[in-house]
Amino acid sequence: MCRFSKSFLAKNGFFIECCSVSKLEKYLPFILAAATPLMTIFNYSSFVEEIQFDLVLLTYTQTGITILIIWYSNKWLIGLKWKSVSSWFILFVGNLIIISIISYLSVLNAPKELSAIISFWVLFIRLALVAVILNVVLRVFESQKERSKLQVQNLALQSENLKFQVETLKQQINPHFLFNSLNTLLDLIEDNQEEAVDFTRKFSSLYRIVLQSSDHDFIPLKDELQFLNDYWILLKTRFRDAIALEVHLSKEKEDLQIPPLSLQFLVENAVKHNEASKIKPLKIIIRESDNCLIVSNKIIPKSFSVPGEKVGLENLQKRFTLLFQPIEFGKNDGDFVVKLPLKS
């Protein structure tokens, strides 16, 4: 999470809230285990004429341990996620087994002084009520943690989107890109006015989409491919036969979602960092793999270093991670390969 996110969350008190919930959930079962047995002791003292402190201590300890067992077993049961079984059914069956075992063992091992006032069903009903109360408390904690988690994620996503918007604005006014594009346009005006008109139309359409892209977290893959096609026409006008693009995608994938400008960035990155010539053209391949896009190109290092902040892939990684899931990238047998997950 970026520094902006952390400071923003701290200012809004979410870190304090999350810490308070965690601390309370951590210590509450032990507080209950220490306090609840007192009621059992008072109940025991009303049935006997003379208090025996060894029995009081035994009752206190057993009741406290029972509270902890019910608490942590229910916390574990709530965390279980079975696709074909309802969580409420898991809780019901789990508590039925746990409470039955505790009740049976308590009655079986009860001292003679307490055997007259302890019966299986009385103890079972009491423990069932305790389990219900503890479940309510645990559900409140789970709900609070989930709410805090969603708030943190939403705020982190907002801050990351702000960073992306700033990065997009930088790309819009990138002097190097504009300089090359305008120079290409000037050459076309002199040599081929029809191609110059088409270049201008694509250039205008491209930047209109760039301006609109900051309003969306995801767009359909077919829209991203259309944007890439417009951008590729600009590149082909500059590099001609020195670059090539192959797209191998099925129609079924076109309705899947992807963060905008993802493919454009990867193509631009490949052209920027690799040598491209008519003799050895740079080929960029886009293909599908399950619900992912695989973007690859041969690594052909340029004879001169390309200036850059080297944060592009990191920013793309952060955006994908916050919006959906991380991307994968790296070198593989002389190729640079990037794997982009698609959202259904």
Offer a concise description of the structure.
This protein is of the alpha+beta class. 66% of the residues lie in helices and 11% in strands. It contains 11 helices and 7 strands.
Key phrases:
344 residues; disordered N terminus; alpha+beta; 11% strand
Description:
This protein has 344 residues and is of the alpha+beta class. The protein is built from eleven helices and seven strands. 66% of the residues lie in helices and 11% in strands. The strands form two sheets. A five-stranded mixed beta sheet has the order 2-4-5-7-6, covered by helices on one side. It has a two-stranded antiparallel sheet with strand order 1-3. A hairpin with a 2-residue loop joins strand 6 and strand 7. The protein is rod-shaped and about 110 Å long. The relative contact order is 0.07. The N terminus is likely disordered.
Secondary-structure map with pairings?
Blueprint: H1 3-11, H2 14-45, H3 53-79, H4 87-108, H5 112-115, H6 120-172, H7 175-191, H8 193-213, E1 219-220, H9 221-239, E2 243-248, E3 257-258, H10 262-273, E4 282-289, E5 292-298, H11 312-323, E6 328-332, E7 335-341
Parallel strand pairs: 2-4
Antiparallel strand pairs: 1-3, 4-5, 5-7, 6-7
Helix pairs in contact: 1-6, 2-3, 2-6, 3-4, 3-6, 4-6, 6-11, 7-8, 8-9
